[in-house]
Design brief:
- This protein has 456 residues and is of the alpha/beta class.
- It folds into three domains: 3-85, SRP54, nucleotide-binding domain (Four Helix Bundle (Hemerythrin (Met), subunit A)), CATH 1.20.120.140; 101-287, P-loop containing nucleotide triphosphate hydrolases (Rossmann fold), CATH 3.40.50; 302-452, Orthogonal Bundle (434 Repressor (Amino-terminal Domain)).
- The protein is built from 21 helices and eight strands.
- Helix 3 (45-59) packs antiparallel against helix 5 and helix 15 (330-342) runs antiparallel to helix 18 (370-381).
- It is flat and about 75 Å long.
- The structure holds guanosine-5'-triphosphate and magnesium ion.
Length: 456
């Protein structure tokens, strides 16, 4: 989503870092470029103006200009400014109330309400061990209720049975009643979408809110909508009153302006972000991490969290043991490849590493990810168990056989073996360091990755 912006800002900052001393004019020139970059990313003008005004005084201050590293300081001020623009601290869902706690989902048509309702249900069930009831109040669109029912089954939470002809407010009341009887912790109410701000639907949502008094009223906004999104959000807030925003489609190709303007324009926190159609493509929104990501500083914390969730603990322990002993075979490489795929592919991982984000479009165009993994997995699958355990067995005729079996070339196989060798070496080194209590140097990209990033 923010590739272009990241690329631009990184360029501006590289320029600042290169110069030793900075004059006020230099900082002003850089801030003008930052301003243009934000406007090009479709951030609303008043938000950009306020942002630049808020950081200018700090950035051209005497302490900054006289410091040993003025460029770094200016970058930090911009980074902190973006974090503030995004809301400063993260604000998770607030469910502190007597159960059943209602959550109301509202938003324009197709913004992702129904999908997000199910994603939230899954998250609450799995991470907070809550029992959840999903209820569809969408009497507008045919099959809207069935859509939520299917998702509820998919994520394994309760679904309020459909009663033909019932009105939204009555469905909401029935949902709360049912939840009370069944000792359910959280009720998520999914409402009908609206194409534009429409009086009838607005008052319907307001009536549901009145009837159920939701702890959270979440406005779901498609981050691809552009600037209008923030204005629509303000309208929803003034008519219905919202407690937070969920931004969806952050995996899309938009310029990201809506995401960046939302907080300033509505004054309401972004609580969650959706980044895909799958049920686990939902994350808590962290302004600090997002600011780092936008500035190409990476988001290692999220990556580590994601890895911890995705990779089973036993697997990690097994690999760690092998690592320490220096026994990392091709079978292990295969399971690593599968895990990387689960973490969002090579692109997903690289994007979160510091300094890589600024490769931006290059990275996006470089067709790096899953196909490569599939290919490499196919090569490993064509090997005999003995070959996977012991790469030294590999000779020319075996390589030819494997190439024929996996639809690869001998060169592909050599590449894979080289990557495996480098990884095994690194792991052996890390294993030794772990024993000696020293931290490994992770400032470099993992070996084998360099070849895959296109050079400028
Ligand atoms: N790529 C991507 N697709 C998403 C995301 N969130 C939702 N979608 C997709 O967007 C489409 C519409 O989502 P819904 O959840 O049905 O939207 P809605 O707001 O309930 O729509 P209405 O009920 O018609 O107003 C579906 O195909 C979803 O899979 C996201 O974060 N990323
Ligand atoms: Mg819907």
């Amino acid at each position: 989503m923010f590739e272009n912006l990241t690329e631009k800002l990184s360029g501006i900052f590289d320029g600042l870092k290169k110069r030793g001393a900075l004059k006020e004019e230099d900082v002003n020139a850089a801030l003008r470029e930052v301003r243009v970059a934000l406007l090009e990313a479709d951030v609303a003008l008043p938000v950009v103006k306020e942002f630049i005004a808020s950081i200018r005084d700090r950035a051209v201050g005497q302490e900054v200009l006289k410091s040993v590293t003025p460029g770094q300081q200016v970058i930090k001020i911009v980074r902190d400014g973006i974090e503030e623009m995004l809301g400063g601290k993260s604000e998770p869902l607030n469910l502190k109330a007597a159960p059943p706690v209602p959550i109301l989902m509202i938003g324009l048509q197709g913004s992702g309400k129904t999908t997000t309702a199910a994603k939230i249900a899954k998250r609450l069930k799995e991470r907070q061990k809550k029992s959840v009831l999903l209820a569809s109040l969408d009497t507008n669109r045919p099959a809207a209720m069935e859509q939520l029912q299917i998702l509820a089954e998919q994520v394994g939470v309760n679904f309020l049975p459909i009663v033909e002809g019932q009105m939204p407010v009555d469905i909401a009341k029935r949902a709360m009643q049912a939840a009370k009887l069944q000792n359910i912790d959280v009720v998520i109410l999914d409402t009908a979408g609206r194409l534009h701000i429409n009086q009838a639907l607005m008052s319907e949502a307001a009536a549901v809110k009145e009837a159920t008094n939701p702890k959270e009223t979440l406005l779901v906004v498609d981050a691809l909508t552009g600037q209008d999104a923030a204005i629509v959000a303000r309208e929803f807030d003034s008519k219905i009153g919202i407690t937070g925003v969920v931004l969806t489609r952050l995996d899309g190709d938009g310029r990201g302006g809506a995401a960046l303007s939302m907080r300033s324009i509505t004054g309401k926190p972004i609580k969650l972000i959706g980044h895909g159609e799958k049920m686990d493509a939902l994350e808590e929104f962290h302004p600090d991490r997002m600011a780092n990501r936008i500035l190409g500083m990476g988001d290692v914390i999220s990556l580590v969290e994601k890895a911890a969730e995705t990779i089973k603990e036993e697997d990690a322990k097994k690999i760690a043991k092998k690592m320490a002993k220096g026994e990392f075979d091709l079978e292990d490489l295969k399971s690593q490849l599968q895990q990387m795929k689960k973490l969002g592919g090579m692109k997903g991982i690289l994007k979160m590493l510091p300094g890589v984000g600024k490769l931006g479009k290059q990275l996006k165009d470089a067709n790096l990810d899953d196909r490569l993994f599939v290919h490499q997995e196919a090569i490993i699958d064509s090997m005999t168990p003995a070959e996977r355990k012991n790469v030294r067995l590999m000779n020319a005729s075996r390589k030819k056989r494997i190439a024929a079996g996996s639809g690869a070339t001998v060169q592909d196989i050599n590449k894979l073996l080289k990557m495996h060798m480098q990884m095994a070496k690194m792991m052996k080194r890390m294993g030794k360091m772990e024993k000696s209590g020293r931290m490994p140097d992770m400032s470099q990209l993992p070996p084998g990755f360099e070849d895959m990033i296109p050079k400028k």
